[in-house]
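RESIDUES AND SHAPES:
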Amino acid sequence: MLKQIIAKCLEREDISFLIVGDGPAKPPLKQFIDEKGIASRVVMIDWVPHSQVANHISAADICILPREWTSFSPFTSPENILKVGEYLAVGKPVVVPRMGGFADAEFPIIPVEPAKMGQAVIDYLANPRPIPEGEHLTWSVSEARLREVYKSLGALS
């Protein structure tokens, strides 16, 4: 799905991507970038420590959560929620697939059909809007909330 989003967005000359992380999807994505000759507009950074994640998110105008429909689509995984929470904590709008808990979300979450995620990015960048005051979480507030949740679950001491 990320390949489709990139291909759609790169139809515009003023859009570029920063992809941070690692995993099994990275090699085919790197191959796609090399084959298309778009490495100057799609920068890939390997895994970074969590303490550096906010710095990379801050560089973005908008973030995306590229997920396709699966039999689990009515449910949202904790990984998805954490990623979106990180994006929102840094004050970024997020394009997400219209599924699970994101199906009826309101701005700064932008839920769309998965096949339309690239166009949603283009549309937002053509007409950006600020995140309403009071809805902008800070990174430290978000981190503190997550730590409390993890402690209550026994995952942190």
